[in-house]
Amino acid sequence: MIRDARVLRADFVPKEIVHRDPEATQLSNALEPITRDEPAETAFLFGPSGTGKTCLAKCMLERLRREVINIEHQYVNCWQNYTRFRTIYRILEGIGQTLDVHRQSTPKDELLERLRQYDGPPYVVILDEVDQLEDMNVLYDLYTLSNISMVLIANREEELFARIDERLASRLMNSTRIQFDKYGTDELVAILQARVDRGLAADAIDHAQLERIADAAAGDARVAIGILRNAAQQAERDNADQITHGAITDAIPDARAEVQQRTVETLTPHQQQLYEIITENGSIPPGALYERYCEQVEEPKTKRTIRNYLSKLCQYNLIVADGENRGRTYRPIS
């Protein structure tokens, strides 16, 4: 049944991205100066989760690496590396400059100075979930380095720029902005078909079943691929030659739960605390939520930061905000 399990993984990066030609062209144009040994334009990729932002960024960078042999690149997930130190450390790690760095004692400014002194090949850094950074000044630090080019990925442009000071915003205003919309059903079917062609045996699944998976995924490619993977694994366990409708039915809630669990596991400690409070209470207003949060953490964040965290949890379909202003409550998505 499964010929190549790699292509059924959510983090698999194909050589060609389906249904993202305009976005690919925009990003390619932003990166093109590197082929002339010039710095690339800073590129912003915005859109909901599961719309191919990360996949396209990695794909285009790999394509660029094939065109320009002498190039360095690094992927940094800012959800996991959300402090200024961790972000710069991961970027230095991409060029092998962290062997003598001590996480507890090496000053942040020393890390930045190492980046300033970098004189190697063009260096492109993908900062994914960039709106998760605790200190947005790190973007200003990186923007001032002419030897580093940035691809920045976030969900919403307005919320990201609301956290950036005027000094940085004015510089980033002319950056390349690329908007990603949710996939339609036909587009998800095409994405799934490409994975089926490479990863599954012939006639393992039919077009109508792919449409059903795409419809259940509601525009999220991660969920769609997860449903396909789980259904194929079930068919293989059953020694079946084809994926059954029952296997797809069983795979739908499992795939959604897997995506949700992976997201929960990447939350910062403070976001994790908020999510646990909301989950434990079922439904809770902002005031009570913040009060309980402050009781449970040693160094609570400001209310404004907490609002940003809650917005992020909503964007990633972990919680729902019901009502407006004083009547608002937060509840988990089951």
Compact summary:
By secondary structure, the chain is α/β, with parallel strands linked by helices. The chain is built from 14 helices and 7 strands.
Description of the molecule:
The protein has 334 residues and is α/β, with parallel strands linked by helices. The chain folds into 3 domains: 20-179, Rossmann fold; 185-259, Helicase, Ruva Protein, domain 3; 267-332, Winged helix-like DNA-binding domain superfamily/Winged helix DNA-binding domain (Arc Repressor Mutant, subunit A, Orthogonal Bundle). The chain is 50% helix and 10% strand. It is built from 14 helices and 7 strands. The protein has helices spanning 21-31, 53-67, 84-93, 108-116, 137-143, 157-162, 166-172, 185-199, 207-217, 221-237, 245-265, 269-281, 286-296, 303-315, and strands spanning 43-46, 72-77, 123-128, 148-154, 176-179, 319-322, 329-332. The strands form 2 sheets. Strands 2-3-4-1-5 form a 5-stranded parallel β-sheet, sandwiched between helices. Strands 6-7 form a two-stranded antiparallel sheet. Helix 1 packs across helix 2 (53-67), helix 3 (84-93) runs parallel beside helix 4 (108-116) and helix 10 packs across helix 11. The two termini are 32 Å apart. The relative contact order is 0.12.
Provide tags for this entry.
alpha/beta, 10% strand, Rossmann fold, two-stranded antiparallel ribbon, Arc Repressor Mutant, subunit A, 3 domains, 50% helix, Helicase, Ruva Protein, domain 3
Q: Overall 3D geometry?
A: globular
Amino- and carboxy-terminal Cα gap: 32 Å
Beta-strand percentage range: 5-15%
Total strands: the figure is 7
Please write the string of helix (H) and strand (E) elements: HEHEHHEHEHHEHHHHHHHEE
Number of helices: 14
Q: What helical percentage do the residues reach?
A: 40-55%
**Based on the structure given, which CATH architecture of the largest domain is correct?**
3-Layer(aba) Sandwich
Ranges with pLDDT <50 over ≥5 residues? none
Main pleated-sheet profile: 5 strands, parallel
Structural class: alpha/beta
The CATH fourth-level homologous superfamily of the largest domain: P-loop containing nucleotide triphosphate hydrolases
Rg from C-alpha positions? 21 Å
CATH domain topology of the largest domain: Rossmann fold
Main sheet strand line-up: 2-3-4-1-5
Average of pLDDT: 91
Q: How many distinct folded domains?
A: 3
